[in-house]
Design brief:
The complex is a heterodimer of chains A (415) and B (303). Chain A is 49% helix and 14% strand. Chain A is of the alpha/beta class. Chain A folds into two domains: 2-138 and 302-345, D-Maltodextrin-Binding Protein, domain 2 (3-Layer(aba) Sandwich); 142-299 and 365-413, Periplasmic binding protein-like II (D-Maltodextrin-Binding Protein, domain 2, 3-Layer(aba) Sandwich). A five-stranded mixed beta sheet of chain A has the order 2-1-3-12-6, covered by helices on one side. In chain A, strand 1, helix 2 (39-55) and strand 2 (59-65) form a beta-alpha-beta unit. Chain A starts with a helix and ends with a helix. Chain B has one domain (73-300): MetI-like fold (Orthogonal Bundle). In chain B, 72% of the residues lie in helices and 1% in strands. Chain B has helices at 7-47, 64-70, 73-89, 92-103, 110-122, 125-136, 143-149, 164-189, 193-201, 206-217, 219-234, 237-243, 255-263, 271-300, and strands at residues 50-51, 59-60. In chain B, a hairpin with a 7-residue loop joins strand 1 and strand 2. The chains are: A alpha/beta (415), B mainly alpha (303). Chains A and B meet through helix 3, helix 4 and helix 19 of A and loops of B.
Chain lengths: 415, 303
C-alpha cells in the first residue's frame, strides 16, 4: 500500500511538473548509460536529455553512449559495480537475469500511476514476477518489406494467405529472382522467420508457451511449423549463401532486384532508402495468414530504459523515466527514431511505413511478441537460433536439431 | 635500542644477502603470476562444480557440468577443430623455412622484399580476419572470381560447415608464415659458412645439404617456431570471432571460443560450464606444457 501512495504522489508530481517546473526540484548528478551510438538514436536520446535538463536546471546530467553490441556484455559489469542511474536494455525475458539477481530497480510504483494506463499495451512485456522493471520509449513492427515495382512488373499483389504467398514466390522464382533476402551470419534474422511461421501456424498462445519452455521442442506442432518453413526452403525461396552475410550485407540483393522481399524490422527502411529505393519502389505487408482463423499476432520488439538497483540518484532517475514515458517526449523521440511511440496519447509520425506498422499493431488481436531472443531464456535463444540457421541450410537435420533444443529446454527448466 | 643498530640483525642480512637477493627480485613477478595465473586456475576448477550465471547465487552441482560437456556435440566439434588448427597451423613452419631460404640471398632491394613478406605479421589479427572475410565473401569477394579463372565453381567458404575451419586457418597461416620466416632468417645468419663449404667439398648439395647440414644448425629456430606456432594455434580465438562468430551453426568453434560463447557472450550465462571447458582446455595444454618443460630441462642438462 505504501508503494502505491508514494507512486501516486510521485506520478502526480511529475504530471504537474510541466505546468509548475518549480514543484519538483531535482539536484545532484543523473548518470545515464544509453545503448546506441547510431545517429538517429543518439539524436533522440540527446534530445530527451536536453529537454529534461531544461526542466531541471539544478540537475547535472551525464550521458554516456555505449555501442549496442558492446552494451550486451558490458551491462553485467556496470550493473554490479559503479552503476549508472538509468540504463538502456530490452523488454521481455532478456531482463530476467538482471531481475533475478536483484540488479534492476522495481519501478511498479511508476506504473501504478496514470503512466501505467498510457503505456498499457507494453505492460506485460515489462512485467516479471508480477512487477514492472523498466519503462519503454519506443518499439517497431516486423513484417515483409518488398519491391513494389517488381511486384507490379510481374502483376502480383501482396499475399494475405499462405497459398498466395507461395504462388507469388513461385512467380518470382520463375522470373529468375529469389523471393526473400536474408543474412543469417548473426543468427537472429532466422529467429524472425521462426517467430512468424510459428505465430501464424499455431497462434500467439502456443508461441509464448514454446518460448517460455512449457512445450517440448519435439512436439508435432513444432514440426508443423518447420514443415511450412521447409516448403519455402525446398522451393529455393531464400538467397544462396545466406550464412555468409550479415543483415546489412543481405540488403544489396533487394536493392539490386536479385531478391524481392525481406522479412525484417522497420529499421531496415532507413538503409534501403539510403541505398536508393524510393517509397514507390518499396512496399510493406503483414506476414500472411497460414492457419485460417488464428488471430494475427506480431513481433514488435520494445526498447526500454531501466534503473539499476545500485543507482545513486533514484529520485532523479524516476523523474526522468516518467518524462521518457510522457506523450510529448514519445512523439518527438519516435519521430527522430522513425519508430512507434508506446504512449497511447502520442502522435505517430507521418511516414508510410510507420503508419502501416501502427495500423497493423493496433489491430494485432492475437498479441504482441517481443522477439525470439527476448521471449526465450538466453541459453535457449542461442541454441534455438543456431538450430534455425542449420535448418535453413540442412533441413534434413531437423530431428537432430529438435532433440538438441529439447535437451537445452529440459536443462533450463531444471532450475 | 633502535633495531637497525643491532649487530645480530645486520650480520644476518650480510650473511644471507647473496642468497636472498634473487628471491627479492623475483618476488613481484611471482606474486603477480600467483595472483593472475595460478589462483585463477584453481578458481576455474572450483567454479566448474557450480551452476552460476555470473550475477546471482552459485549452486553446487558436482560433476554435472562435465557430464553435460561430454554429452555435448558442440564440445566435440570444437575439440576436432582445435586438432585441425594444431596440425594445419604447423604448416607455417615449412612455409616460413622455404620463404626464408628463398629470401636469404644478396640481391638489390632484398631488404624491401623481406619487409614485404614480413608485413602480414605486423598487422593486427583482427584486420587479417576482416580482410579474409571480405576476400571469401561470395557476393563481393575476390576469392570466387579467382578460383573461377581455374574453372572451379563458386564456393561459400565461411558459410559452409565443411570448409569454414580450413578457410580461417588459411587466413591465420598468412601472418604465421611471416613470423616463422623471420625466425629462420635470423637463424640462417648464424649458419656457419665454413661447415657449408666443407659439406660442399664433400659433394653435398640440394636436399641433402638442407637436411643434414643446414637444418641441424637451425634447430633452435625450429624449436621456437614450433612453440610460437602451437601457441598461435591455441590463440585462434580472435580470428574466429572476427570472421564467423563460430558459425555457421557452431561449426568453426574451437574450445576457447566455445568457452567464451557459453559464459561471456551475448547469450552466455553459464559460468560453471565455461569453467569446465576451461579446465579441459587446461588439461590438454598441460600435456604440451609438460613436453615443453621436459625439453627445456633436458637442454639445460646439455642433452
Amino acid at each position: 500500500m505504501k508503494f502505491t501512495i508514494k507512486g501516486a504522489v510521485a506520478a502526480l508530481a511529475a504530471t504537474t511538473a510541466l505546468a509548475f517546473p518549480a514543484s519538483a526540484e531535482l539536484t545532484g548528478t543523473l548518470r545515464i548509460f544509453f545503448n546506441d551510438q547510431n545517429p538517429a538514436p543518439k539524436e533522440a536520446m540527446e534530445g530527451m536529455v536536453e529537454r529534461f535538463g531544461e526542466m531541471h536546471p539544478d540537475l547535472n546530467i551525464e550521458l554516456t553512449l555505449i555501442d549496442r553490441e558492446a552494451n550486451k556484455t558490458q551491462i553485467r559489469n556496470y550493473l554490479t559495480a559503479n552503476a549508472p542511474d538509468v540504463n538502456g536494455w530490452y523488454a521481455g525475458n532478456r531482463m530476467r537475469p538482471y531481475v533475478a539477481a536483484g540488479l534492476f530497480e522495481d519501478v511498479s510504483d511508476l506504473w501504478d500511476g496514470p503512466m501505467g494506463d498510457d503505456l498499457a499495451s507494453t505492460r506485460p512485456a515489462l512485467t516479471l514476477d508480477g512487477k514492472q522493471w523498466g519503462v519503454p520509449y519506443s518499439y517497431y513492427q516486423w513484417g515483409i518489406y518488398f519491391r513494389q515495382d517488381i511486384y507490379d512488373e510481374l502483376g502480383l499483389t501482396p499475399a494475405t494467405t499462405w497459398d498466395e504467398e507461395k504462388a507469388n514466390c513461385q512467380a518470382i522464382l520463375d522470373s529468375g529472382r529469389k523471393c526473400y533476402t536474408i543474412g543469417t551470419r548473426f543468427l537472429w534474422t532466422a529467429g524472425g522467420w521462426f517467430d512468424y511461421l510459428n505465430l501464424r501456424t499455431h497462434g500467439y498462445d502456443f508461441h509464448m508457451a514454446l518460448t517460455a519452455g512449457e512445450v517440448e521442442w519435439t512436439d508435432d506442432r513444432v514440426r508443423e511449423t518447420f514443415a511450412n518453413w521447409r516448403e519455402l526452403i525446398d522451393m529455393g525461396a531464400f538467397i544462396d549463401d545466406h550464412t555468409a552475410y550479415t543483415w546489412q550485407e543481405a540488403q544489396p540483393f533487394m536493392v539490386n532486384g536479385d531478391a524481392v522481399s525481406y522479412l525484417m524490422g522497420n529499421f531496415v527502411v532507413a538503409p534501403l532508402r539510403e541505398a536508393g529505393l524510393t517509397d514507390d519502389q518499396l512496399g510493406f505487408y503483414q506476414f500472411p495468414e497460414i492457419t485460417p482463423g488464428i488471430p494475427m499476432a506480431e513481433d514488435a520488439p520494445t526498447d526500454t530504459l531501466h534503473i539499476p538497483a545500485q543507482a545513486q540518484n533514484k529520485e532523479a532517475a524516476r523523474a526522468f523515466l516518467q518524462y521518457v514515458a510522457s506523450a510529448e517526449n514519445q512523439t518527438i523521440v519516435n519521430e527522430t527514431l522513425g519508430q512507434l511511440p508506446i504512449n497511447r496519447n502520442a502522435t505517430v509520425a507521418d511516414d508510410k511505413f510507420i503508419q502501416a506498422g501502427f495500423e497493423m499493431l493496433s489491430n494485432a488481436t492475437g498479441g504482441i511478441a517481443q522477439f525470439f531472443d527476448r521471449d526465450t531464456d538466453a541459453e535457449l535463444a542461442s541454441a534455438g537460433m543456431e538450430g534455425f540457421q542449420e535448418f535453413m541450410v540442412m533441413p534434413d537435420n531437423l530431428d537432430a536439431i529438435l532433440n538438441r533444443l529439447e535437451r537445452v529446454r529440459q536443462r533450463v527448466n531444471e532450475d | 635500542m633502535p633495531a637497525n643498530s643491532d649487530p645480530q640483525t645486520r650480520s644476518w642480512w650480510s650473511a644471507n644477502q647473496i642468497r636472498l637477493a634473487p628471491w627479492l627480485f623475483l618476488a613481484p613477478g611471482m606474486a603477480f603470476f600467483a595472483l593472475y595465473v595460478i589462483f585463477p586456475i584453481f578458481q576455474s576448477f572450483q567454479i566448474s562444480f557450480y551452476r552460476w550465471d555470473g550475477l546471482g547465487e552459485a549452486r553446487y552441482i558436482g560433476l554435472r557440468n562435465y557430464e553435460d560437456l561430454f554429452d555435448d556435440p558442440a564440445f566435440y566439434t570444437s575439440l576436432r577443430n582445435n586438432v585441425k588448427w594444431l596440425l594445419l597451423y604447423l604448416l607455417a613452419i615449412p612455409g616460413g623455412l622455404f620463404i626464408a631460404l628463398f629470401l636469404n640471398q644478396q640481391v638489390r632491394g632484398i631488404r624491401l622484399y623481406k619487409s614485404l613478406f614480413f608485413f602480414p605479421f605486423v598487422i593486427s589479427q583482427v584486420v587479417v580476419g576482416l580482410v579474409f572475410a571480405w576476400f571469401y565473401n561470395p557476393a563481393i569477394g575476390l576469392f570466387n572470381p579467382l578460383i573461377g579463372m581455374f574453372g572451379f565453381s563458386p564456393m561459400n567458404i565461411l558459410g559452409n560447415p565443411n570448409t569454414v575451419t580450413y578457410g580461417i586457418i588459411a587466413a591465420g597461416l598468412w601472418p604465421q608464415i611471416a613470423y616463422c620466416m623471420i625466425l629462420y632468417l635470423t637463424g640462417l645468419n648464424a649458419v656457419d659458412p665454413e661447415q657449408v663449404e666443407a659439406a660442399r667439398l664433400d659433394g653435398a648439395k640440394g636436399w641433402k645439404m638442407l637436411w643434414y647440414v643446414i637444418l641441424p644448425q637451425l634447430r633452435p629456430a625450429t624449436f621456437i617456431a614450433v612453440v610460437v606456432t602451437v601457441i598461435g594455434a591455441l590463440r585462434s580465438f580472435d580470428m574466429i570471432s572476427v570472421m564467423t562468430n563460430g558459425g555457421p551453426f557452431g561449426s568453426s568453434r574451437v574450445l576457447a571460443y566455445y568457452m567464451f560463447e557459453v559464459s561471456l557472450s551475448e547469450y552466455g550465462f553459464r559460468m560453471g560450464y565455461g569453467a569446465a571447458i576451461a579446465v579441459i582446455l587446461f588439461l590438454i595444454m598441460l600435456v604440451y606444457i609438460a613436453f615443453f618443460l621436459w625439453r627445456m630441462w633436458r637442454e639445460e642438462r646439455g642433452y
